[in-house]
Design a protein that fits this description.
The structure is a homodimer of 223-residue chains. With 223 residues, chain A is mostly helical. The first copy, chain A, is built from 11 helices and no strands. Helix content of chain A is 61%, strand content 0%.
Chain lengths: 223, 223
């Protein structure tokens, strides 16, 4: 999408309307590059070049790398997090909650192809440059609701007591963003492992989580 | 362990016996630092310093960074992979196979504390410096056996048909190494999420995978 825009605007300030579009275009370019090669491996000049403008435009809109990362967290990650997580509050049942989460995560990664690898490198990894910025955004109410819903169901004896409610968040991520982030890696593997599709990942994630968190599964399972 | 060794040996070649110990000590130091700060963020001088020797010793034993990484893959990752994965071949039943895998992964990370974060940054992440080296090591026979065991059980109608056998490997990793690699991150989160222990992660992983891959769970689950 970004690469089709080749018009350059190298002199003076951009007009307001073009300015808004250009700012979004620069965020798109930054996210695409960050997903491909990491934040540390990407220069502001590369972002400008990918968006088809001069480096001065990046400085004009974002001043510096820190401000650019702040903008990405606030203007791009927060809306995605909110759209994925906020419907959780509408439900008090674990299985529909998990199904919905998985489906919305897949939808979000369809629109934002950079999301899984950005998550892996810049949020999950130690020293990731978006981790602290993300933790300042207020989405923990949703996670708390998920945890308390699982805890309540567990107290009613509906969910395997060996599952840990505080780990449900990471189980969801580990079965969605992790396989999506590493699916490119499969191509380097022996034939039997190749060719896993997004649809298979989505179906597998949903089936796995639904099986694990369905009612009355805990009782029959001894060690 | 490494930091307790402070003896320096800065002149001449090390004696053979001390040499073997020192080589292992350097591998230990390298793995600890790589786990803490990543391969790209670690200099050979830091490795030497952590092991309490001069940088010349690192060059003496490993020549350069590439040879050091080759040695790590062959002498440290391969034995761990083999000990975790080879018992898989002894079983043709999915649940004991998954239980055993989870338990051996936790045991391996107990002894090798650097393993989860090294996996996340250098194997799972795009551009990770151990990924290609790892894929050259022959452990895919074990993964193939796991896949064919799950496939066979699924054909017998014992496992939810919506699960994808080629994704079982990543489900195991996503519920073991991923939470272990990110457990430090929990401390930055609101109180309700803090304090998850290794034991809880292990129990959760085993319960989740066993529930999802147990017999006769597929039939009752429509979408």
């Amino acid at each position: 999408m970004c690469s089709t825009r080749t018009a350059r605007r190298s002199i003076g300030r951009p007009r307001p309307v073009a300015g808004i579009a250009l700012r979004e275009l620069l965020l798109d370019a930054a996210l695409t590059l960050f997903g491909e090669q990491g934040i540390a491996g990407t220069t502001l000049a590369e972002i400008a070049s990918r968006a088809g403008v001069t480096p001065a435009m990046v400085h004009y809109y974002f001043k510096n790398r820190n401000r650019l990362l702040d903008a990405i967290a606030r203007e791009r990650l927060l809306p995605i997090l909110t759209s994925v997580w906020s419907p959780v509050l509408e439900s008090t049942e674990v299985v529909p909650m998990l199904r919905g989460l998985v489906q919305r995560i897949f939808k979000a990664t369809e629109v934002n192809a950079w999301l899984p690898s950005l998550w892996l490198r810049e949020i999950a990894s130690e020293g990731g440059q978006l981790r602290t910025r993300l933790f300042k955004l207020a989405f923990f109410d949703y996670v708390r609701h998920l945890i308390s819903t699982v805890t309540a169901a567990q107290r009613r004896g509906e969910i395997n007591p060996e599952l840990e409610p505080r780990l449900v968040l990471i189980s969801v991520i580990g079965n969605t963003l992790l396989p999506l982030a590493t699916v490119g890696m499969w191509q380097q593997l022996p034939a039997v492992l190749q060719g896993v599709t997004r649809e298979q990942i989505a179906r597998h994630a949903e089936a796995l989580l639904v099986s694990a968190f369905s009612k009355n599964l805990g009782s029959a399972r001894g060690r």
